[in-house]
Amino acid sequence: APVRLGDVATTGANIIATADSIRQMLPQLTESLPKSVKVTVLSDRTTNIRASVRDTQFELMLAIALVVMIIYLFLRNIPATIIPGVAVPLSLIGTFAVMVFLDFSINNLTLMALTIATGFVVDDAIVVIENISRYIEKGEKPLAAALKGAGEIGFTIISLTFSLIAVLIPLLFMGDIVGRLFREFAVTLAVAILISAVVSLTLTPMMCARMLSQQSLRKQNRFSRACERMFDRVIASYGRGLAKVLNHPWLTLSVAFATRGLH
To answer: If 37 and its partner were Cys, which of 33, 61, 131, 171 is the partner (CB 3.0–4.6 Å)?
Structure first.
């Protein structure tokens, strides 16, 4: 008669690791049984979990690649693109180290948190690079520009970091199953944001002082000039739109309140 056995993972156990351990034990179990007994795996629910984790890993890598591409499109400078290109993976690697320390597993929620954190991580780096580049273009030496530029917006980066982390605090105190599910998500995202702030205020200014110069920032190719002309048109259009809004405040407020009323 067929006998069906199922495994139940304990709370906090890694389902994929548990399934792998069981599969490794199957040959030993088969040898200890009579030859007339056959052992087969009827179902493995980790198949869908593995596929989901692979998809999320791909989305994370794709997000990092797209972020680097967009950075180059707007900064139009290879050294300035390399800096956040290093800061983003380094912040995520630091987050993985904290996850190991906290005994967090790599699952859909933690990978989703890292994917979302990619946007926050690159924001800090871009703001610092832009401010330092502004002083270098004015004629400051790279080291002086890095110290001055990072010092000016250091408090802004810190305040933004803790504001974002404060938004995640309610998730830490949610009860029941939902709280247990989103606790790792909230902690992972908060750690990534915090490490990003540290990297943007330490490593990013140092790399700017070493890699940026007036010559590198002023050097432009045909692609850079085309992008600059496009951005100039966008900025000019925005300026005209902003002027119309500021010249008609009551109309702007009326449209805003009417839009709010529709929702």
So the answer is: 33
- Find all residues with CB under 8 Å of 118, minimum gap 6, and list them: 60, 63, 64, 67, 88, 92
Tell me how far apart the alpha carbons of residues 261 and 246 are, in angstroms, rounded to a whole number.
Answer: 22
CATH number for 51-221 (one of 1.20.1640.10, 3.30.1390.20, 3.30.428.10, 1.10.340.30): it is 1.20.1640.10
Amino acid identity, position 163: S
The answer to whether 205 and 147 have CB atoms below 8 angstroms apart is: yes
Which ranges in the chain are annotated with CATH 1.20.1640.10?
Answer: 51-221
3-state secondary structure of 156: helix
3-state SS string over 22-81?
A: HHHHHHHHHHHCCCCCCCCCCCCCHHHHHHHHHHHHHHHHHHHHHHHHHHHHHHCCHHHH
| Residues 83 and 205 sit within 8 Å (Cβ to Cβ) | no
pTM for the full predicted model: 0.72
Task: Take residue 16 and report the two structure tokens written for it.
Answer: 């994929």
**HEC profile for 185-234?**
HHHHHHHHHHHHHHHHHHHHHHHHHHHCCHHHHHCCCHHHHHHHHHHHHH
Q: pLDDT, tens digit, for every residue of 62-105?
A: 877 887 787 777 777 788 888 888 888 888 889 989 988 888 87
HSE-CB of 151 using CA atoms within 13 angstroms: 7
